[in-house]
Amino acid sequence: MAKITLSIIKADIGSIAGHIKPSKKLIEAVKNYVSVKGKGLIIDYYISHTGDDVAILSTHKKGVLAEPIHKLCWEALLKGTQTAKDQGLYGAGQDLLKDTFSGNVKGMGPAVAEMEIEERPAEPFFFFAADKTDPGAYNLPLYLSFTDPMHNSGLILVPEVKKGYKFIIMDVSYTDADKIIELNAPEETYDIAALLRDPERFVVESIWSRASGEQVAVVSTTRLHNIAGKYVGKDDPVMLVRLQKNFPAAGEILSPYALTPYVAGFMRGSHNGPLMPVKENASISFFDGPPVVSCSGFCVKNGKLTEAVDAFDQPFWDYIRTKASEKAVAIREQGFLGPAMLPYSELEYGGIVETLKALEKRFILKK
Ligand code: F6R
Ligand code: MG
Ligand code: MG
Question: For the chain, what are the domain ranges?
Answer without folding.
Answer: 3-354
